[in-house]
Specification:
By secondary structure, the protein is mostly helical. It folds into 2 domains: about 180 residues, no CATH class; about 170 residues, no CATH class. Helices cover about 70% and strands about 0% of the residues. Helix 2 packs parallel to helix 6, helix 8 runs antiparallel to helix 9 and helix 9 packs across helix 14. The radius of gyration is 23 Å and the shape is globular.
Length: about 475
C-alpha cells in the first residue's frame, strides 16, 4: 500500500463509501450483531488493498495468517504443557515463506555457492517481514501466557490491519487485539482531526523530504570521502523520513478509524547516544527483538551481555535484508552499542558534542545499508577511514560534481531539514512528545502546502517495502 500513490486513496475512499452504503441494510438485518459486519468489512477492505499491491502479496499474507491461526488453535487444544514443545516446530514453519522469498537466494547461491536460477531476482512480497513477526509474537504470547484464543475475524484484523500491515508498526497482542475486538466504524471529529495531522506530517516527510533527498543519493564515488559522506547523509535523511513518513500516515489512518497504533519513530536524529537512538528508531522492531531474542538469552544482567547484544543486532541486520552489507550494518551497531554501554559511565560529553558523535556514527553506518556491492563497500569504508583522502581537491570535486541549480536546490533542502530538525528538538525537549509542534493545525497546513509545492512528482515506493 503506497500512501504516496493516488490510487491507494481512491481505492480506500471507494471502499469506505461502499462499506457506508452496505452498513444501513446490514445494520437492520443483523440488529445487535451489526458490529460483526464492521469487523468483516474491515478485513475485506484490507485484503482488497493488499490485492491492489499484488496478488502474490495478498496470497502469501493469507497463507501465513491461516497457518498461524490454525496452528494456534491446534496448540491451544493440546494444552500448555504440550503446546510449548510444539511451538518450537510451528514457529519455524511460520517463517518458511519469509525464508524462501527473502533469504533463499542469499543462503543457497551467494553463501553456499549454489546455482539455483529460479531463486535469483525473487520479488519479496510487500510487508512479509512485518506481518510475519507480528503473527509470530501473537502466537508466542497466546501460548506462553495462556491467553484465550481470539475469534477468527479479530485475529485477521489484528494481523492485516491495512494501515500498518506492509511496513509496521509491528503491534503486540495486548495493544491491538482489544481494539479490534471492539472495532466499529465510527467517525468522530476529534479522531479525524488528530488523524489528519499525523497524515499531513507523514506525507510531508515522505513526499517532500525523503523523495527529494533520494535524488542526491549518489553511490558512484568510492574514492572521494566527501562525496561518500554526502551520499550517507542523503540516504540517512531519505530512509528516516521515508520510513517515519509511512509510520506516521499509518498512525493517522488508524486514528481516523478509532485505532491507536504505536508511534514507531520518536525523532531518532535527536539522540545523543547510540543507545538512545535505538530507543527512538523503529521502536516496535527494537521492542520485538528485546522481548523475543535479547531477554530469553539473558538480557543485560549476565556476564555475557555483550554476546547477547551482538546476537540481537546481527539478527536485526539480517532481518532488514539478505546481504553481507546488512550483516555488517547490524554488527557495526551492535559494537557501537556495546562500546556506548561499556564507556557510558566513564565519559561524559557535552550534549551537543554527544549529538554530533552519535549522528556521525549513525551516518557512517548507513554505507553498509545502501551499498550492496561488497567490493565497493569495502573500498568506501577504507576511504572514509583514510585521513589522507580528505583533501581540498576532493572537496572541490564534490562541489563541482553538481551544477549550480542542483547545488542551490540541495542547499535549500538541507536548510529545510535543519528547520524540521529544530522543531523536532523542541518537541522532544519541551513536551517530550515527538512531532507535537509539527502537528499543530497551523504547522500542518504549512506542511500540506510545502508537500504540494515541493514534492518531486516521481512515483517513489516506500523504501521499507523491500524489507
Amino acid at each position: 500500500m503506497n500512501f504516496a500513490d493516488s490510487r491507494f486513496w481512491i481505492l480506500l475512499l471507494s471502499g469506505l463509501a461502499v462499506i457506508a452504503l452496505l452498513r444501513i441494510p446490514a445494520g437492520a438485518w443483523l440488529g445487535s450483531r451489526a458490529a460483526v459486519f464492521d469487523r468483516l468489512a474491515l478485513i475485506a477492505l484490507g485484503l482488497c488493498l493488499l490485492m491492489a499491491v499484488s496478488w502474490v502479496t495478498c496470497v502469501i499474507f493469507l497463507v501465513v495468517a491461516v497457518f498461524s491461526y490454525c496452528a494456534m488453535c491446534y496448540l491451544v487444544r493440546r494444552g500448555r504443557r504440550h503446546s510449548r514443545r510444539l511451538l518450537i516446530l510451528f514457529v519455524p514453519l511460520q517463517l518458511l515463506p519469509l525464508l524462501y522469498f527473502k533469504y533463499a537466494d542469499f543462503i543457497l547461491n551467494e553463501t553456499l555457492g549454489g546455482s539455483f536460477d529460479t531463486l535469483r531476482g525473487l520479488i519479496i512480497p510487500a510487508g512479509i517481514s512485518f506481518y510475519t513477526f507480528q503473527m509470530m509474537s501473537f502466537v508466542i504470547d497466546t501460548l506462553a501466557f495462556g491467553r484465550p484464543l481470539p475469534r477468527v475475524l479479530d485475529f485477521f484484523n489484528f494481523a492485516g490491519f491495512f494501515p500498518q500491515v506492509v511496513a509496521g508498526p509491528i503491534e503486540r497482542r495486548e495493544d491491538l487485539l482489544p481494539q479490534m475486538e471492539q472495532f466499529k466504524f465510527r467517525w468522530s471529529t476529534e479522531n479525524l482531526n488528530a488523524g489528519a495531522a499525523w497524515v499531513a506530517v507523514g506525507m510531508f516527510f515522505k513526499c517532500c523530504l525523503a523523495d527529494n533527498a533520494a535524488i542526491y543519493v549518489d553511490r558512484t564515488s568510492v574514492s572521494n570521502p566527501f562525496s561518500i559522506w554526502l551520499a550517507n547523509l542523503m540516504f540517512g535523511l531519505r530512509i528516516y523520513y521515508d520510513f517515519a513518513g509511512y509510520s506516521l500516515v499509518a498512525v493517522g489512518l488508524g486514528r481516523c478509524l478509532g485505532i491507536r497504533l504505536t508511534l514507531n519513530f520518536l525523532s531518532p536524529y535527536c539522540s545523543t547516544s547510540i543507545r538512545e537512538f535505538w530507543h527512538r528508531w523503529h521502536v516496535t522492531l527494537s521492542g520485538w527483538f528485546r522481548t523475543y531474542v535479547y531477554l530469553p538469552l539473558g538480557g543485560g544482567r549476565t556476564r555475557w551481555w555483550m554476546f547477547n547484544v551482538a546476537v540481537v543486532f546481527v539478527v536485526s541486520g539480517l532481518w532488514h535484508g539478505a546481504g553481507w552489507g546488512f550483516l555488517l550494518w547490524g554488527t557495526f551497531h551492535g559494537i557501537a552499542l556495546i562500546v556506548n554501554r561499556a564507556l557510558g559511565g566513564a565519559i561524559r560529553l557535552p550534549r551537543f558534542v554527544a549529538w554530533v558523535v552519535t549522528l556521525v556514527a549513525v551516518l557512517f553506518g548507513w554505507v553498509f545499508f545502501y551499498e550492496t556491492r561488497t567490493p565497493d563497500l569495502l573500498t568506501k569504508v577504507a576511504t572514509l577511514w583514510n585521513p589522507m583522502a580528505y583533501t581540498a581537491a576532493a572537496f572541490r570535486e564534490t562541489l563541482t560534481s553538481m551544477s549550480g541549480g542542483h547545488l542551490f536546490a540541495l542547499t535549500c533542502l538541507l536548510l529545510l531539514v535543519a528547520v524540521v530538525w529544530a522543531v523536532e528538538w523542541l518537541s522532544v525537549a519541551r513536551r517530550d512528545d515527538p512531532y507535537c509542534y509539527l502537528r499543530h493545525p497551523v504547522a500542518a497546513v504549512v506542511l500540506v502546502v510545502l508537500t504540494v509545492l515541493l514534492a518531486p512528482g516521481n512515483d517513489n515506493a516506500f523504501i521499507y517495502f523491500a524489507f
